[in-house]
Design brief:
Layout: H1 4-30, H2 36-63, H3 72-78, H4 92-119, H5 123-146
């Protein structure tokens, strides 16, 4: 089997994980306020987690004889996650709400990957998608909790 949809989803994740890592980095740089000392180093942890996922996803794509996006232009052209110029005018809660929304986009792509890899019979990739979706949902929960909100996760 070609695993066409699975490979397309893996490459979508390459673009989206790369984009989200940059957005987390922007949050890290432009953050100010009373939670700075706690949240600034936490963003390093979030970037590390995204970069670890990116490595696994890219290597899985290569294992399946795919070709991961590897330029900034390819990431920008293919991501489903919007960006905006950095500014100090955005509050930390606004930045965290943006991150939660972007993590939801990533969770949806992982969910799509779970579905298509299942349809195409690729249990190994499906296992990767399931594990990473679970980790992303934890990040959503934590971001939402910091904002005083319920997780608001879509179970599908």
């Amino acid at each position: 089997m070609e695993l066409i949809k699975t490979k397309e989803t893996l490459n979508q994740l390459v673009a989206d994980l790369s984009q989200l890592s940059v957005i987390v980095h922007q949050t890290h740089w432009y953050m100010r306020g009373p939670e700075f000392m706690h949240l600034h180093p936490l963003m390093d942890k979030y970037m590390d987690e995204l970069n670890d996922q990116l490595d696994v996803v890219s290597e899985r794509l290569i294992t399946l004889d795919g070709a991961p996006y590897s330029t900034l232009q390819e990431f920008a052209d293919n991501t489903g996650i919007e960006d905006e110029p950095g500014t100090y005018a955005k509050t930390t809660p606004e930045r965290l709400a943006t991150l939660a929304a972007d993590y939801r986009i990533l969770a949806a792509v992982y969910q799509h990957g779970i579905e298509v890899s299942g349809e195409e019979g690729d249990d190994s990739t499906q296992d990767i998608f399931i594990g990473f979706k679970t980790a992303i949902e934890k990040r959503i929960w934590m971001l939402q909790a910091e904002l005083g909100l319920a997780p608001g996760l879509d179970p599908a």
